[in-house]
Amino acid sequence: MILSPYAVIGGAVAGLGLVIAARGILPGRPDLGDVLSRMDATRLENLERDRETQPNSLMEKAGAFLLRTVGDGTLRLPRQQLELVGRSPAAHLGRKLGLALYGLLLPVLGVGLANLAGFPFPMAIPAVAGIGLAVIFWLIPDLQLKQQATEAKQDFRYAVKAYLRLVQLEREAGAAPTQALKRAAEVGEGWVFSKIRDTITRSELDGISPWEGLKRLSLELDVPELGAPADIIAIAGEDGAAVGDTLGAQAKSLSGALVTSAKAQANMASEKMVMPVAMLVMIMTVYIGYPAIARIMAG
């Protein structure tokens, strides 16, 4: 008996349809991960978007490879500063490798162009200069990261001042300590408040109090201004004390410290401008007075 190919295909399609129908009717076994995700959906929705763990660029992949090969202990990466600016260690290492490679090849390229133009140079010059530039360029990302981390920490302090005021208002409105911390963090915008919301949510998932999570965050980022309100709220949560005035005094003290720091930075910037302005005045004086003095001396 020879079966028609159309009959075989039709039977296969009909059988596949029956299997799919039976699979849809019978109750399936729920996946544990999906169930837990749905249970924690209301809390996980406030978490920050995690950075992509897989490196994207070529230099970032090279940095990840170097990190796996050499180890974090040998490289001694500034993890605290990287966390403040939101940069991964692999991306930082990739930037350092890229700049070091650029510094190493820059003298070679310059000498090659000079040789093509008819001005020969010995090969020892680009070799020594390339090594020196590679070392300098390797250190440049660390200096930039230090400056960016300082600015990020200053932004964090300003945000903490606003957060203190918001927590004070929530406490005066009758909110519990935990609710005051959560509601105040939900009101604010920016990366600092996102970090605080993330910390509070993760503290709930870890089974610890929100003020303990904020205390850990202040130690991780070296921002003691965030640890102080955490201690104040901890007293309210454990002893039921009214801490509204204490939070207001802490915010006022932090505001005064920020104003003093801003004035110091402004004075420092003004002092840096003294020498360029003096040189400019001297150059203009010589430029204007020299023709008159020359004519007097000639007469």
- Class by SSE composition: mainly alpha
The total of beta strands comes to 0
**Total DSSP helices:** 14
User: How large is the share of residues in beta strands?
Assistant: under 5%
Count of individual domains? 2
Helix content range of the residues, please? over 70%
Q: Which residue ranges are poorly predicted, with pLDDT under 50 across at least 5 consecutive positions?
A: 40-46
Q: Terminal Cα separation, in Å?
A: 129 Å
Reported for the largest beta sheet, the result is: none
Order of helices and strands: HHHHHHHHHHHHHH
Overall mean pLDDT stands at 75
Report the C-alpha radius of gyration, rounded: 32 Å
Silhouette: flat
What do you see in this structure?
By secondary structure, the protein is mainly α. It has 2 domains: 95 residues, no CATH class; 120 residues. The protein contains 14 helices and no strands. The radius of gyration is 32 Å and the shape is flat. It starts with a helix and ends with a helix. About 2% of the residues have low confidence.
List the helices and strands and how they pair.
Elements: H1 5-25, H2 32-39, H3 41-44, H4 58-70, H5 72-75, H6 79-85, H7 89-116, H8 124-172, H9 177-187, H10 191-206, H11 210-221, H12 224-239, H13 244-272, H14 274-298
Helix pairs in contact: 4-7, 6-8, 7-8, 8-9, 8-13, 9-10, 10-11, 11-12, 12-13
